[in-house]
Amino acid sequence: MGGCPLLNILLKDIAQQENLSVQSSAALKDLVDLMNVNQKGVVVVLEDLRPIGILTERDIVEILYKGIKLDEKIHAFTKKNLVTTIGGRTVGYALNLTLENNIRRVIVVDDSGDFLGVVTQQDLLKYLEEDFYRLTIKIKHIIKKIGGLLSVSPDESLHEVLKIMVANKISSVPVTDNGRPVGIISEKDILKLAGTKVSLQSAVSQYMNGPVDTARLDSLLVEVVEVMNYKNIRRVVIVDEEGFAINIITIRDVIENLEGDYNKFLERKLRSAKEILNLLPEMLIEVTDTGREQLIIWVNDKVTSKFGREIIGKPVTSFLPRETWDNIYSTLIKLGKIEHIKLKKDDSIYELSGFFISTFGKMEQGRFQLIMRDITEDIKLSTVDPLTDIYNRRFINAFVMKEIERSKRQDRHFSVVISDIDDFKTINDSYGHLSGDIVLKALARLITDTVRNLDVVGRYGGDEFMLILPDANNETALNVIERLRMNIENLEIRVLKDIKVRLTASFGIASFPENGTSLDDLLVAADEKLYKSKRQGKNQIA
After folding, report:
1. Residue that finishes a domain, picked among 233, 256, 279
2. Is residue 541 part of a domain?
3. How confident is the model at residue 300, as a pLDDT?
């Protein structure tokens, strides 16, 4: 489980910064000039020291293909979705991050979020080469996982090359003559032409690179890695026994096909499965356990839309409270799974389930797959009255039963109050049921604003409201409800454009334990007192 020492090298020790960043006020031409100098195919856009965007060779190829002038300012073209990681992470983790998020480089920042540099997959490959000396995997073992060859002939135009790159989102196009590779043209080559007066109708043969680095199907993968590292190139053309071009492999293809427990695990995670997961309504979060910490390595689109892409690469404890995660982590390690854990984050309530897969690889000890479902509305529907937005009858009854148990244990008093709007039927009959709804909502707001912070207010049905007043004996309850009665008496509610109504309410108070020690006893007592108020002339408290 110890792993390869090279994979434990810290990113801050290998991240490169020189000529790899530009301020957001610069022009596209400035950025292109930097790319031609740094030969990394990327420039990070900064505001002061903070990364705010990124532009790559692929972006420049699209810009040139669309005919956009290079004197335009950068900020209009900057990609906002950044994947960053702090310099204290390892090479192994960065490799993981590029694979899971389908990116070719990682932006490295310090603990304050300031730019430290960039690490590309090509940089990472240099630290992986020694692993390949123990492997016997050949090109033919991985070629079936790579798509068909896209190529151009020497006399086709640069414009056609750009078109193929943009349409297929590829970084290079081999040039073949009667099926044999005679050159290659990459995004890096296109970049060199940016800002020059070269016509995009020019023939590819004038600007392609040759001769082409090739490998055969029986070539060892380690040989390809050595060539890539030695010549600082990102791809090699694959030829058959007769020298005809049949495919191309890139650094990413090589990295994805590392052997070992970790990579067997990755191979099981088909990309199509990730695409399916992005369609699911649940939020899916994948966490890698490095042995030292647990880091968010991948999230689906549902998570990104709610919390942003910046949570990728961060410790899971920056997303979930540490105490909550510690409990979840220990359960996952012990049992391998968790189900239906309720947790609160910001103003929402989530139900979390998940499982743990042990990998014991070079870069991680395991993966956590977490499924989060937002149940805020479900909870609200089960506890809140949809019209008045106060608690419903089901919740109120459950609360009274809990309050009875609490008051018994602590030898305390509390009161239950049932209220009924006087002559509410007249309002419905005179102005319509929509006006009645307006009255109910206005009264719910008034009751909530009038009672104490610890009091619980609910709609018990129709025009009946119920209040639970914790730690309130009959005398305290009378004072609270008298204030409420007077406020209702003084309330004016606009029910139609030119019509306002005034109303009154009657109340019945039952106190624990004097009027009962069970839910049924208290409800019957409060109801009897309510009707006593009605018989005494309404707008009363009994």
Report:
1. 256
2. no
3. 87
pLDDT at 88: 86
pLDDT of residue 104: 80
Structural domain boundaries, residue 345? 261-379
Judge if 320 and 419 occupy the same domain: no
Q: Which of 31, 20, 298 is nearest to 191 (CA)?
A: 31
Instruction: Give the single-character DSSP code of 429.
Output: H
3-state secondary structure of 199: coil
Instruction: At 7, list the tokens.
Output: 């994979």
What are the E-state strand segments in 452-531?
A: 456-461, 464-470, 492-496, 499-502, 505-512
309 alpha carbon, distance to own chain's centre = 6
Does residue 542 fall inside a structural domain? no
How many angstroms separate the first and last alpha carbons of the chain?
A: 75
> Looking at the predicted structure, is the pLDDT value of residue 499 above 80?
yes
Which of residues 209, 228, 256 is at a domain's end?
A: 256
Count Cβ atoms below 10 Å from residue 146 Cβ, excluding itself. 17
Q: Which burial class, exposed, middle or buried, applies to 111 when counting CB atoms under 10 A from its CB (0-12, 13-18, 19+)?
A: exposed
- Before 513, cis peptide (omega within 30)? yes
Find the mean pLDDT for residues 27-53: 88
Structurally, the chain folds into a number of domains equal to 4
Q: Name every residue whose Cβ is closer than 8 Å to that of residue 129 and which is 6 or more positions away in sequence.
A: 222, 225, 226, 229
Verify that 246 and 267 share a domain, yes or no.
no
332 with 368: CB under 8 angstroms?
Answer: yes
Q: Are 268 and 347 in the same domain?
A: yes
Residues 268 and 145 in one domain: no
Residue 540 lies in a domain: no
User: 248 and 270: one domain?
Assistant: no
Output the domain CATH number for residue 526.
Answer: 3.30.70.270
| Structure confidence at residue 404 (pLDDT) | 94
Mean pLDDT of the chain: 85
Q: Please write the tens of the pLDDT for every residue from 122-172.
A: 777 666 655 554 556 678 777 755 557 889 999 999 999 999 988 888 888
Residues 374 and 401 in one domain: no
Do 311 and 249 lie in a common domain?
A: no
Tokens 């008496």, residue located: 489
Q: Sign of the C-alpha dihedral, residues 55, 58, 59, 61?
A: positive
**Which amino acid, one-letter code, is at 185?**
I
Local confidence band at 521 (pLDDT 50, 70, 90 cut-offs): very high
Specify whether the CB–CB gap between 54 and 31 falls below 8 A.
no
- Do residues 102 and 125 make contact, with C-beta atoms less than 8 angstroms apart? no
Per residue in 430-464, pLDDT (tens digit) is: 999 999 999 999 999 999 999 988 899 999 989 99
463 and 519 fall within a common domain: yes
Residue 263: pLDDT band (50, 70, 90) is: very low
Residue 450 falls inside a structural domain = yes
